[in-house]
């Protein structure tokens, strides 16, 4: 009994000391909305501001539109809230348009890194813990929540539900950061955006639309491309109709009636439906953000004038292939496996399908070979070809460098199970077993780029080679000269290499002839 009382007293003392320390170690910052209070964290030394509102989510008949300006408040806002937007298997709230700021202690005029999370536009949130290395390097880190799933990307291409609400949230977040970061000792002219997966696609759309010009000054794009078949929806209204029917809608197919239906049901009803919501091409209006096909924007918009670091993973361990019996044999009809962003007449589809099947599976004998060929096929069409192609166009006529990396280190696959986006885990995490060297290389490269716009401004023992940017003049008559595309391979041996052109030439011929343009349909 006596021992229990001693333990209780000690626990109370620790709680009291911790509470007093919490009260003592805070920082009040006056923002454009009011005063926010963040709290000191010791490892590494920084102040954390969690759940700071950057916008007000619209409600009622405006719930799928662009966000509203943030509310003003009197008194002090306690920035301690770990919020998430509504999504499956998570406790989320529609009042989720917040960001988290992690400010290194006792520094001023710091560069800023803003991270947009992955999640295929269906899930995810701004991290509630900072990447330790960047804090130690004197870099402010900001993570952002934005609407996802139906609230963020339901699209009827209509005035009430125009689409791309989640992208408009991101613009509002960047605007808030640009206006307020100086009050957190940040430099509003040194803002780098970092997107992984769908976050990378988002940044490309913002770049190409021009809507966020001046709000950030460098971009890191990881494992995502706006040119990938899985990035932009072709049939947003059909997808919306399917969602409405799953939710009990029995009306006609007019967008006006579907608008009314979606605007009046609970957001929680969207969490258990099958349709996938993604960015769409909007009807041109005063408030639209994304009006043209991405390849047209990439070719036409020559004013993307910021340094870019683009990285993709050469992953060979794609779970959906490894664990699915469908991919243990080669189908007779390969047509249904062709990318959905090709428009091929029935009369020639069989020929293209046979050509593709022969290119990837021509000499396959064993089940293991088949699985490997499927991995190569998926990696080429969803990742490598679109990323390399867009990188070449971004380098074209850009007065700033574009750095391209192929991450092919095998050990990280064992540690992180080989999924896309694991470069982020190496960069944002403390060192993990057997990944310290490669993690240190990536962290230093990222830090150099954020601060200087160059991942290898000097050579060191850790990084003995200079990462060469993509040559700017490798496009002639809108055709990429892939054999001239330089990239930095980060693997067992790190070095600059030139693209092996076989698969790129194959897909370039097909896409030049059969690419399916995204269009707004009246």
Automatic annotation (TrEMBL):
Keywords: Glycoprotein. Coiled coil: none annotated. InterPro entries: AB_hydrolase_fold, CarbesteraseB, Type-B_Carboxylest/Lipase. Gene3D superfamilies: alpha/beta hydrolase (3.40.50.1820). It comes from the Eukaryota. Transmembrane segments: none annotated. Residues 29-507 form the Carboxylesterase type B domain. This is Carboxylesterase type B domain-containing protein. It comes from Pieris brassicae. The lineage of its organism: Eukaryota, Metazoa, Ecdysozoa, Arthropoda, Hexapoda.
């Amino acid at each position: 009994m006596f021992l229990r009382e001693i333990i209780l007293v000690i626990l109370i003392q620790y709680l009291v000391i911790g509470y007093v320390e919490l009260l003592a170690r805070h920082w009040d910052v006056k923002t454009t909305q009011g005063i926010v209070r963040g709290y000191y964290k010791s490892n590494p030394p920084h102040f954390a501001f969690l759940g700071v509102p950057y916008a007000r989510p619209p409600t009622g008949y405006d719930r799928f539109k662009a966000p509203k300006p943030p509310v003003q408040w009197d008194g002090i806002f306690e920035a301690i809230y770990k919020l998430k937007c509504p999504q499956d298997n998570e406790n989320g709230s529609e009042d989720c348009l917040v960001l988290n700021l992690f400010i290194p202690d006792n520094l001023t005029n710091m560069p800023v890194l803003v991270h947009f999370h992955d999640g295929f536009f269906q899930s995810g949130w701004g991290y509630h813990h900072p990447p330790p290395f960047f804090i130690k390097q004197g870099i402010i880190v900001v993570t952002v929540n934005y609407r996802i799933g139906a609230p963020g990307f339901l699209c009827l291409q209509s005035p009430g539900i125009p689409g791309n609400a989640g992208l408009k949230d991101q613009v509002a977040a960047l605007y808030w950061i640009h206006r307020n970061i100086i009050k957190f000792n940040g430099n509003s002219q040194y803002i780098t955006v970092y997107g992984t997966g769908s976050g990378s696609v988002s940044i490309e759309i913002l770049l190409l639309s021009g809507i966020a010009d001046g709000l950030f000054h460098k971009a890191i794009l990881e494992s995502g491309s706006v040119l990938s078949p899985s990035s932009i929806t072709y049939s947003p209204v059909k997808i919306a109709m399917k969602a409405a029917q799953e939710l009990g809608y029995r009306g006609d197919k007019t967008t006006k009636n579907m608008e009314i239906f979606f605007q009046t049901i609970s957001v929680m009803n969207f969490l258990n439906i099958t349709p996938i919501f993604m960015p769409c091409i909007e009807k041109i209006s005063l408030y639209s953000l994304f009006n043209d096909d991405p390849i047209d924007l990439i070719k036409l918009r020559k004013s993307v004038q910021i340094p870019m670091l683009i990285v993709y993973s050469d992953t060979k361990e794609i779970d959906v292939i490894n664990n699915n019996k469908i991919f243990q044999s080669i189908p007779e009809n390969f047509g249904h496996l062709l990318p959905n962003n090709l428009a091929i007449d029935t009369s020639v589809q069989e020929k293209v399908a046979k050509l593709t099947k022969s290119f990837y599976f021509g000499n396959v004998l064993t089940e293991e070979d088949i699985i490997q060929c499927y991995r190569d096929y998926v990696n080429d069409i969803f990742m490598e070809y679109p990323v390399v192609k867009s990188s070449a166009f971004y380098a074209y006529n850009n007065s700033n460098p574009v750095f391209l990396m192929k991450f092919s280190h095998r050990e990280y696959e064992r540690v992180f199970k080989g999924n896309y986006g694991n470069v982020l885990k190496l960069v944002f995490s403390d060192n993990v077993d057997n990944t310290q060297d490669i993690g240190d290389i990536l962290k230093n490269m990222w830090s150099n780029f954020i601060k200087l716009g160059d991942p290898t401004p000097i050579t060191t023992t850790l990084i003995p080679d200079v990462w060469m940017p993509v040559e700017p003049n490798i496009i002639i008559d809108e055709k990429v000269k892939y054999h001239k595309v330089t990239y930095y391979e980060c693997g067992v041996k790190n070095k600059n290499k030139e693209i092996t052109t076989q698969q790129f030439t194959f897909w370039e011929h097909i896409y030049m002839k059969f690419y399916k343009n995204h269009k707004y349909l009246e």
